[in-house]
Design goal:
alpha/beta, Rossmann fold, globular
Length: about 250
Amino acid sequence: MRRFDGRIAMITGAANGIGAAVAHRLAAEGARIAVIDLEEAALLKEFSGLPKASCLTMAGDCTQDDVLRRFVATAEQKLGPIDILVNNVGQSARERGGAFVDSDQEVWRFVLEISLLVTLRLSRLVAPGMKARRSGRIVNMSSDAAFAGDAGLADYATAKMGLIGFTRALARELAADGVTVNAVAPGAVRTRAHDRIAPEILDRLRKGTPAGFIAEPEDVAGLVAYLASAEARFVTGQTILIDGGRWML
């Protein structure tokens, strides 16, 4: 299918994992893409096979406001107005994570910054143009951790649930202007982060998922592609979990 011919899609955190899978899926269906990640070498390698005329890559720290502004300005100059925004960038505290009672405010601020505030900032830069053109799709990447409240992820769960509230409010504001805003909440997905997880933890993740397996990034990309398409024109303000049944709404 070529659902995105003539469309411009912007994806953050696209050097690997879910972000890369989403970018490739949208490009395969005809979109011209603008992608950004902190890891320049990985980003360039990931998208080296795409024509430069249809793929803009930019290395930068998405937590920096000037980087986001430059990214949007460059993308619009080289590719055109943004039709699809996928706010994928985000992460947990990783090796600095742990029980909330032992946590550090500096870590909370980092997790909230990268997993919530970056999405608000970039959406603020892109949404006005979508509203003016009366067309657009915004997809925010939440997590089933927001619903399950996994131990040791209090800051991450807070940020990802904040994204859901933002998604609903922005969807209500933009619905009459032909812009949809939705969230995707993945569960256990096989990404590079799994390389640092002990086998027994991965096994516990698998056993805790009714479907009995860990998803691939491409599974999430398929859902994002649907929400970004014209087929989803009547879907807005929703959060769709893709977690093999771990949490059911």
